[in-house]
Amino acid sequence: MRHHSKRLERLKQLMILETPPEAAYDDLTRALANGLDVPIAMVNILDQHRDWFKSVLGLPFNESSAATSFCEVFLQTADDLVVAEDTAQDPRFAAHPMVTGEPHIRFYAAARLVVDGQTIGTLCAYDTKPKAVSSEKVAELKALGDAVMELLRKRDVSPE
Question: Is the whole-model pTM more than 0.70?
Fold first, then answer.
């Protein structure tokens, strides 16, 4: 699904890849990190071969290979939210190289970013220790993801 032509065309129409940082995205990323009390959070855009970070907190780089993507799970499920309170105990992530090895990710939470039915990316958070998440925090994750999707829709240049 990462290589699905309609998804990639929709992503191209948004003209978001390789754009400079924007305060609105950074504010939402920071709100997610603070709300979940995690060291790593990002607005992650899924292109054909990589995850590109429109906004990132807690990492010194702005992209990663699709081969190491936690967010790949969204291309294999219909769920709009994924919360793995302990990735080492979650069958979707237990064998992931970033769980079994450095940096030993133990918590992952993300909201799917969808534009016109196409998965464009995620708003996601990570920690190196397991973490319990209340239903209120899951609702905050959803609301922040909705806010990112609204920002994406505002930059839309697709034909009506």
Answer: yes
Instruction: Provide the terminal-to-terminal Cα distance of the chain, rounded to the nearest Å.
Output: 25
CA dist 14 to 19, 77, 156, 158, Å? Answer: 11, 23, 5, 7
Residue 9 in tokens: 């065309």
The phi, psi pair for 12, rounded to 5°, reads: -60, -40
Asked whether the CA dihedral 156, 112, 34, 144 is positive or negative, the reply is positive
Q: At 68, is the pLDDT very low, low, confident or very high (cuts 50, 70, 90)?
A: confident
98 vs 156, more confident: 98
What does the alpha-carbon distance between residue 94 and residue 102 come to, in Å, rounded to a whole number?
13
